[in-house]
Amino acid sequence: MPSDRPAPRDTAAPDARTEKITGDLQFGEGPAADAQGNIFFSDIQAHVTYRWSSDGQLSVVRRETGGANGLYFGRDGNLLACEGDRGRVVSIDSQGRVTVLADKFNDKRFNKPNDLWVDPKGGVYFSDPAYGTQPVQDGEHVYYLSPDRKNVVRVISDMVRPNGIVGTPDGRTLYVTDHGAKKTYCYRPNDDGSLSAKQLFAPVGADGMTIDQQGNVYLCEQAVLVYNAHGDRIDEIRLPESPTNACFGGRDGRTLFVTTRGAFYAVQRRERPRQPTTVQRPATSRDEPRRPREEDRLGRGGPQLTGETRPRGLQQGPARHNHPVLIALDADGDGDITAAEIQNATAALRSLDEDGDGWVRREEMRPAIANPIPRN
């Protein structure tokens, strides 16, 4: 659940078509898709669970939900819900019958279960923060419910305030966001449900999250921030309000559905060419980001060019290259791009990097775009 969010931006992403399905929510959360692509989502404060069908119909499927927040479908087709007000995780069958799966740890009720994910074996990872209340447990942690529903173990105990949680379809990587510490981590799930190989995945704390078929992770912060499996931020989807959670669904499973405090959106995105991403199993237990790599920063790594060495493929002659990037690099306009010209361009980029983090971000580019240097 969100707190102290940055001000939302009111412009949708230019590569997306956004439809507001409903704007009558008190606190939208927890969208989850069933096997047919229908979307179920929560209105926490109204104590209602909605169903949006793939043919466009919106209906109420449950009332008096106990403050249900995160939702997810189990392998048996039942809807699992984090009932925050009741401090428990439940399963709801197609007839609306409720079965309590977990409501205590060490003989104490949970704080306010928030979000959950079901692994390929049927085990359930769920976060248990304490938004708006004092913790009942000895902190705010993440737990694992065994596939046979007999045991609950604490698997993360070093977060400030865990929130969104999602795993890869093969179960080899689990992502958990620490909303309180403003960081998102990835882990390697072990056979018994415990977690190892913790790594910082993204330097941002989010509310809910989801994952697409390419392994890209979508974090709901002031916008929907998209990271590839290596932790590179590759996209941003903006909505009229700050998102709270998201999932993919619809008939083809490719529509992104997003909840906000007051509304529920469907986002149809245009296909854009991207580098293929592969979900990689964390390899070390170091608490450090996979990316950015040092060699990717400005002026680090890569081939060392000296003298008048010309990069392969750029020796094109004055009449051959017309790509704007090549033209910009060819400072003297003689048709050749020398190492010195590349180094000068790198130095110019480095001068834009005001915070010295090795990345020229959009806001750092704006002064240069507004005041271009005329070319002789």
Query: How many domains comprise the coordinates?
Result: 2
The mean pLDDT is: 81
Measured distance between first and last alpha carbons: 55 Å
> Per the principal axes of the C-alpha atoms, what is the gross shape?
globular
The spatial strand order of the largest sheet comes to: 1-26-25-24
Which structural class matches the secondary elements? mainly beta
Regions with little confidence, pLDDT below 50 for 5+ residues: 1-13, 272-320
Which fold name corresponds to the CATH topology of the largest domain?
A: Neuraminidase
What does this structure look like?
This protein has helices at 324-329, 339-352, 362-370, and strands spanning 16-22, 28-33, 39-43, 48-52, 58-63, 68-73, 79-83, 88-92, 98-102, 104-105, 108-109, 116-118, 124-128, 141-145, 152-156, 162-167, 174-178, 183-189, 195-202, 209-211, 217-220, 224-227, 233-237, 243-249, 255-260, 264-269. The protein is mainly β and 376 residues long. It folds into two domains: 16-269, TolB, C-terminal domain (Neuraminidase, 6 Propeller); 294-370, no CATH class. The strands form seven sheets. A four-stranded antiparallel sheet has the order 1-26-25-24, with no helix packed on it. A hairpin with a 5-residue loop joins strand 6 and strand 7. The chain is globular. The N and C termini lie far apart (55 Å).
